[in-house]
Amino acid sequence: MDPVPKITDLQFLPEDRLRVVFDGKLDDQIVPSDFVLMLGLQVGTKVSPKVLTKLAFASSVMEAKKEGQLICQNSDKNITRSSLRKMLAQRGYLPESVDQAIADLEKSGYIKGAVFAQKWVDRRQKSSPRSKRLIQHELRSKGVDNPDIEQVLSEFSENEEIESAWLVYQKYAKRYQSLEPHVARRRLHGLLMRRGFSHSTIQSVEARFETEVF
Known about the structure:
By secondary structure, the protein is mainly alpha-helical. Helices cover 64% and strands 8% of the residues. Strand 2 (17-22) and strand 3 (29-32) form a beta hairpin.
């Protein structure tokens, strides 16, 4: 039976890390210092297989988190949970370590999918209003995760949808005033459809403009 490994040294490192040194042939483990304190480890402590597993996991999470921080800091693109998970997996980190690292990074503000999504919605609605459905599609194409999309669009009401369609219709109706009414209506209808608005929303807007524009 193999002897129970014992901690022979705890070496303090920069960034609140500790190198845990064992006797025998076990590799050192570098982990967050507060994790060592939480487990109550000290020089001379005999370490069970369960604790060794926890130390290895903490070390892996810490390395994945550090890698994730660098990715987020050095990227000029929006980094989402799914995109970061894929990149860390490609670097060889285990799924469990990646999940915990991403959760920690999100709490620390490195992953800002919801912030990016909100800015995208605000910018779209200000410069080029479109339907909730089309915005949802655009955010997915940008790699934004579904929970962030749902969070941002959860308060996008039916009235706001109609108001967005109204703004589009009103803007382009002025451009089409020189056209025959039936031609202008057809073009406006097609425009709203391309912006992702439903038939019921389009009909509501058309009825509202019927007497005001033509």
